[in-house]
Structures are given as structure tokens and as C-alpha cells.
Amino acid sequence: MSGAGQEVRPFVCDYEGCGKAFVRDYHLSRHALLHTGEKPFVCAASGCDQKFNTKSNLKKHFEHKHENQQKQYVCSFEGCKKTFRKHQQLKTHQCQHTNEPLFKCTHEGCGKHFASPSRLKRHGKVHEGYKCQKDCSFVAKTWTELLKHVRETHKEKIICEVCQKTFKRKDYLKQHMKTHNPERDVCRCPREGCGRTYTTVFNLQSHILSFHEERRPFVCKHAGCSKTFAMKVSAHSHRCSPSRVRLLSGFLGALGSRMVPQGLQWEGG
Length: 269
Prior knowledge:
Elements: E1 11-12, E2 21-22, H1 25-36, E3 41-42, E4 51-52, H2 55-67, E5 73-74, E6 83-84, H3 87-98, E7 103-104, E8 113-114, H4 117-128, E9 130-131, E10 139-140, H5 143-153, E11 158-159, E12 166-167, H6 170-176, E13 187-188, E14 197-198, H7 201-212, E15 218-219, E16 228-229, H8 232-237, H9 242-255
Antiparallel strand pairs: 1-2, 3-4, 5-6, 7-8, 9-10, 11-12, 13-14, 15-16
């Protein structure tokens, strides 16, 4: 508990514009899926390939879409008896018994077979490639290659109209715009006699832990840095470049070996 009677939530989302804080690391990891777009929870219902970012959303989907729907088609193979809502789903399932895939690639010289239309469609990209949708003739061999092309070639410039500062994402700009608003909401430190204010909960939590409670348990693991942080996510996002380490090492070297902290190593020169 903090000095103001508030529960300390040390795990804070570092996505700019968010700042939500959590008591447990697991809750932060689950919340981060909302920003990354990852959907690790897949519907197990036959013929359904929908994905969700939380178990609760998956459960709601299943109860709404699958649990109460009538199943008409029954697998006739001995010992199976699985049921399906659509005939196509049944035929696709029976491929597992016969080992004879129904869906054949029609591309000249290929002839590969697949157990479902979705797998055939996914395979088709091997022949067709992934076309860029940004008024561009580029065709990638893989989805990853296409994403890289869009990121590097069609990078959208997100610029603050007030100060012309550029950002990688729109939510970063949205958070930045608060600095130009004289009536912006601020997070005020609850500790007596402090009065410091911050634009995000993350920065406030970091201030309380590092300044008032002197807790900076997370250390940069880069050789020669040893910078400490109050927040785990801050340590993870911290980048200590080799050039910065060399600059620090050179400065310490100029002071003389007696001034070098114990255990610090650097490239000589």
C-alpha cells in the first residue's frame, strides 16, 4: 500500500497513451495482448478458426455461436460419431479417416491436396504471393516479407501539428498532444509534501517507487551499463547501445583507473 492508502501496482503498461497498472505480472502480460493484436486462444469447434485475445472472450463466443446450435451431420465411421452443423465440415473431417484430402491445388505443376479450403487458400499464396495493397506493384513471397516492405517503403509519417515532432504510432501522438493542452489531466503524487505531477500513471508509479521508496531493483544487463530502474518494463525497453557504452568507458578512462567502479570493463583505446 502506498502512503496515501492506495494499492501499489508495480506492473505498468509502457504503451504510450495507456499507462494502466497491475498488481501481477501475469495481468500485465494479458493486457498487453490488446496492444499487440495477438490472439492466442483459438476456437476448438469444428469448422471454426476464430481467435481471441482472452479466454473469457473465447468462452463467450463458443457459448453464443456453438453451444446451443443443432448438429445435423454425423460421421459414419465406426467408433467416431462426431457431429457437424455443415455437410462440408463433415466431409473435411472424414479426410482424417480416409487420408484422402478433398481440396486440390489447381496451379499448373503443383497438384497438392488439402483437407480444408482454408488450408488450400493459404497454400495458394505460395504461387500467387502476397500483393502490396498500397498502390504498389510489389509482391512478397511471405507474409513477413510483405509486412517488412510496408513498414519500410510505405511508412506513414505521424507528425504533431503544434511542434512538428514525429512519432511511430498514432497513440504515441495522442499521448504527446496532452503536453500541449494547458488543461490536461495530470497524475499528482499522493505523498505528503511532494506535489510532483505526471501525464501518465506509469510515470507516477515509477516516481513513487524510485524517489520515495528508493526501490530500483531492475538492472540493465548490458555489460558496462548497470543502470537501475523501478519498473521491470522500463528495464526491458531500455536500450544501452555499444556507442553509448564506449563513450561512458572513455570518460571513466580519462578520469583514471582509480575512479572506475569495481567490475566495470570496457574496450581499451
